[in-house]
């Protein structure tokens, strides 16, 4: 038998003992009567020659595959998918918050000063609550979205202040209601000196973190007093299914031509994003909204759950 074949047979035996039988490298060396270094090289040879095929049977492996598929399908630069095990909404939100906190910390726990744009909402607030305390006074946190409701009340799901407290960063609130009373009123808010200061800072942003909202009966925009039931009904009749920082979006990912759209004071989003724009959203109720935003190519990054990822991939060509 040729010497090369002998070596390959020995490498296959070493790989089987190591990967299947679970032998340690010392045990492997003893059983094959070779040195530990030779045992290591045999296993490496088996891997290099394609004798070893590794399959991970665990929900996390499925999530990694789903994330790769989403990333390729929608041109994302990053994607994370958390496992779904028939979780309650609260359990699923907690999983996302843990994953989201890691993403936040990855961008914030750096020495160089950064301008970080923030949306608002329950999901982002949960992420901030989950974050570790960081000392980042060099950063500036900028609100993308006004947080004042029609009746003058403030949105308790604004995240710029709690994020600032967690990181010791400076924060800049957008001085406007989420929706102005009219397009003319919006123009006045957006011409205010303080609004323009925040807008100018936003143009220098290094990263943006946002949530994805739904447009449906009882959605957060309605529940939190930003839009009335009649306005939601009109938006639904115009095929709106999602919202990004208050901007209604239809199933194709396009901005909905609506009077509501003309009243949004939120800072502008670019398409495609010029800086990392990462969205966080989970739950079956949000699957169609996430898909719409992905279709519109508004994002560069996404953190979602396994069930949403499967829905998105299964329906991504429905409008083709």
How are the SSEs ordered, and which strands pair?
Blueprint: H1 3-20, H2 25-32, H3 36-48, H4 59-74, E1 78-82, H5 89-108, E2 115-118, H6 122-130, E3 140-143, H7 160-167, E4 170-172, H8 183-190, H9 193-202, E5 207-211, E6 213-214, H10 220-223, H11 229-237, E7 240-244, E8 247-250, E9 277-280, H12 287-295, E10 301-305, H13 306-315
Parallel strand pairs: 1-10, 2-3, 2-5, 3-4, 5-9, 9-10
Antiparallel strand pairs: 6-7, 7-8
Helix pairs in contact: 1-3, 2-3, 4-13, 5-6, 12-13
The chain-level structural class is: alpha/beta
Estimated radius of gyration: 25 Å
Helix and strand succession? HHHHEHEHEHEHHEEHHEEEHEH
Mean pLDDT across every amino acid position: 90
Across the major sheet, the strand order is 1-10-9-5-2-3-4
| Strand fraction | 5-15%
The total count of helices amounts to: 13
Taking pLDDT < 50 over at least 5 consecutive residues as the criterion, the unreliable ranges are: none
Task: State the gist of this model.
The chain is 44% helix and 13% strand. With 320 residues, the chain is α/β, with parallel strands linked by helices.
What does this structure look like?
The strands form two sheets. The chain has a seven-stranded parallel sheet with strand order 1-10-9-5-2-3-4, sandwiched between helices. It has a three-stranded antiparallel sheet with strand order 6-7-8. It is α/β, with parallel strands linked by helices. The chain starts with a helix and ends in a 5-residue tail after the last helix. The mean pLDDT is 90. The protein is built from 13 helices and ten strands. It is elongated, with a radius of gyration of 25 Å. Helix 2 crosses helix 3, helix 4 packs across helix 13 and helix 12 packs across helix 13.
């Amino acid at each position: 038998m040729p010497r090369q074949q002998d070596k390959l047979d020995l490498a296959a035996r070493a790989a089987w003992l190591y990967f299947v039988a679970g032998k340690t490298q010392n045990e492997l060396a003893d059983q094959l009567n070779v040195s530990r270094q030779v045992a290591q090289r045999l296993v490496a040879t088996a891997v290099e020659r394609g004798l070893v095929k590794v399959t991970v049977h665990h929900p996390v492996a499925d999530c990694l595959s789903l994330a790769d598929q989403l990333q390729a399908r929608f041109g994302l630069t990053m994607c994370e998918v958390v496992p779904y095990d028939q979780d309650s909404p609260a359990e699923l939100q907690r999983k996302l918050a843990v994953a989201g906190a890691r993403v936040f910390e990855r961008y914030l726990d750096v020495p160089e000063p950064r301008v970080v744009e923030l949306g608002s909402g329950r999901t982002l607030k949960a992420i901030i609550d989950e974050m570790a305390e960081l000392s980042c006074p060099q950063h500036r946190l900028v609100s993308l979205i006004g947080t004042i409701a029609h009746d003058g009340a403030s949105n308790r799901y604004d995240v710029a202040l709690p994020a600032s407290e967690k990181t010791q960063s400076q924060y800049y609130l957008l001085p406007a209601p989420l929706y102005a009373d009219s397009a003319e009123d919006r123009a006045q808010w957006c011409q205010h000196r303080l609004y323009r200061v925040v807008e100018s800072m936003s143009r220098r942003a290094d990263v943006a973190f946002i949530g994805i909202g739904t447009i449906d009966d009882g959605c957060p925009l309605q529940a939190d007093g930003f839009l009335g039931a009649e306005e939601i009904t009109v938006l639904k009749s115009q095929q709106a299914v999602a919202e990004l920082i208050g901007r209604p979006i239809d199933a194709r990912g396009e901005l909905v031509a609506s009077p509501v759209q003309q009243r949004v004071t939120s800072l502008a989003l670019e398409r495609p994003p010029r800086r990392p724009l990462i969205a966080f959203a989970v739950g079956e109720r949000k699957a169609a909204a996430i898909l719409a935003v992905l279709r519109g190519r508004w994002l560069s990054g996404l953190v979602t759950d396994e069930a949403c990822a499967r829905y998105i991939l299964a329906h991504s060509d429905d409008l083709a």
